[in-house]
Amino acid sequence: MQPSEHHFTVNRRARVYTLGNISPRTRYCCIACHGYGQLAGHFIRKFDQVAGEDTLVIAPEGLSRFYWGGLAGDVKASWMTKEDRLNEIADFSDYLSQLYEHYLPQLPSGTEIILFGFSQGVATQLRWIMRAFPEFHHLVLWAGTIPEDIDYQPALDYFSGKALHFVYGTDDQFLTPERLKAHRQGVAKTGLRFREQTFKGQHKVDRGALLKLFREKIWKG
Questions:
Q1: Cβ(126)–Cβ(134) below 8 Å
Q2: In a domain, 5, yes or no
Q3: Which of 13, 23, 98, 183 has the fewest Cβ atoms nearer than 10 Å?
């Protein structure tokens, strides 16, 4: 006799960190998804030069936590694995939709939305976007490649008029020349157009490069 697999929905609590406050001065809201093996509370510190009176940063934490390097290691978080992946995608997509719907009504009219993903957070953001189609103004893919199992062609009108950014370090140990080539070829097939920005560094969110991105591409006058 073989075991049977079943699924049912349960309520659980998700952890979210913010930098900055919502006020009449808020003009930008950045929802930033961390990478594999990170925690939102540490990840959001990278945005300390970006967050301010006019810019709110929201960092949701992945729903799956684990010990890094054994039971005595630090606790880290992940968005998904290959195990039961479709349900994990559905869960984090529902989570991000609820977070979006919670904060968006609190923002002043005209606030620009920036969706930011680092490493594993890139695929997380894109999978959610292609399920929920939230309104946003900027999409930042930082040191991560687009999921190749998604058909973006039917959504080209949706992406039209939105600013798409791809940022990575020139010494990124994970984005090899071969992976970068495959990424660019994959993006070319989608019909999407990303503005590329590089910085001298490895697989990380570099504060200086992040501030440059906001100053030159996102913040307006």
A1: no
A2: no
A3: 13
List the Cα angle 18/160/150 in 5-degree steps. Answer: 75
Please report the pLDDT score of residue 69 as a whole number: 85
Residue 4 lies in a domain: no
Residue 70 is predicted with a pLDDT of 80
- Token pair belonging to 154: 């039917």
The pLDDT, as a whole number, for residue 114 is 98
Residue 26: inside a domain: yes
Distance from C-alpha of 41 to C-alpha of 39, rounded to nearest angstrom:
6
Cβ burial 169-192 (10 Å sphere, 16+ → b, else e) = beebeebeeeeeeebeeebeebeb
Query: Residue 196 maps to which CATH number?
Result: 3.40.50.1820
- Residue 158 inside a domain? The answer is yes
Q: Side chain identity at 88, as an amino acid letter?
A: E
- Total domains present in the chain: 1
Angle 92-20-169 from CA coordinates, rounded to 5° = 65
Q: Residue 169 belongs to what domain range?
A: 16-218
- The residue ranges of the chain whose pLDDT is under 70 are 221
